[in-house]
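Re: the request from the purification team.
They wanted to know what the chain is likely to look like in 3D before they choose a buffer screen. I agreed to run a prediction and write the result into the notebook, where they can find it.
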Amino acid sequence: MDKQKIDVKNIPVEVQVHRPDGSTTAKYASRDRIYVRAVKGLHQSLRRNMGFVFMALFFVLPWIQYNGHQAILLDIFEQKFNIFGLTLWPQDFTLLAWIFMIAAYALFFVTTFYGRVWCGYLCPQSVWTFIFMWFEEKIQGTRNQRMKLDQEPMSVKKFWKKALTHFCWLAFALFTSLIFVGYFTPIAPLFMDFFTLQAGFWAVLSVLFFTVCTYGNAGWMREIMCTHICPYARFQSAMFDKDTYTVTYDEKRGENRGPRSKKDVQYKEKGLGDCIDCNLCVHVCPTGIDIRNGLQYECINCGACIDACDDTMEKMGYPKGLISYTTEHTLQGRPAKVFRPKLVGYFLVLVIVCVAFVVNLSIRKPLELDIIRDRGALYRETPEGLIENTYTLSIINKSQQEKTFALAVTGVDNINWIGPEQVTLAGGESRNVVISLSLDPYYASKPVLDLTFSISDTAAPEISVSQGNKFFAGR
């Protein structure tokens, strides 16, 4: 068989490496500090009021007493969460999972409809950052005064203002941390022991850790948390569509931008739009972006640029709304669709998980039973010739009131109960009760018998739980 030779041609490949020139070999530019200008308006009033209400709830809730104990106490060491009249145990982890799912789908639903309003109005990072900026403004002055102060050489005046600012930041961060840790340990003793230097190691470590985190996040990192660390800023675009209400600049109306006199009513004949290029929308933005460049992932939908622009439009005598909460379809002259598949889908899933949470909460029993057999022997014979099995009943009173429970066993006739038939537990108490069951071998129809242990509330017999187990008869 003839072999055909295949000619191989070498094709020279030249790889060109484009090296940066000298002008672009500089190191990464350091982060420019953002000097946020204070602004007043409808959206900022709404944001401040909402932040004040929820921040007040955060500070007040752990101090509320309910039935003689702290209303909200998430005791990790004791492995029980007290939420007013409800006590959750590790066995109730599914309820916590439902709560997380409700929060997630509520966030997805709101984001799909109104963008990142959670970030701009209620996110703790944003709320505490605005509080820290408020301290900065009250001590160091307005935006221009702060910029001028930073450019000045160090002096007694500058040192005093800077030191007072950081002292207020640290004091507020410490107070915040004490309140936060107070959700996980009794708050009144925590405050007293911390300031008298009698607090435990873990309490002190937790308070100092969260103090440093709050001081660093709200005082120094600020927008870096929103733009580089928080994952929500990255995957939010998957929930946006052309009918999502976001902070948007009306380019058709605003361009071409340029300064002009307030008395200039012929500006449109000069090819100018309504934007006077005052840059106030940039100065008031907490993340330092220019909303006129279009939708950007750094935007937290706080509405500060809307209030600044509306104030400028009012002074110029132009209609408000050059920057507003609107949709892409609206800017294109098309009606926005509220009821769309994605939004309806998120809403339906949110309703389903809410119903599932309510159902799980309603069928939850305020007591728990776990049975552990004697590991030393399956059974033993008594001097009377009876077969005896030993069990440990682990009982938890998951309510917050003292309860008396009746213990019983069913499933095997003529069986003898050896041990307490009632047990009284304080609210949140757990106890191991050791009992034995004995049976005459004559009544054992087979080597292994099925039986059921049950416990019930003596004051409310309908509240009961049961669990099956085995009785080993030996033969």
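For the purification team: The first strand starts at residue 65 and ends at 66.
Please add any questions underneath this entry.
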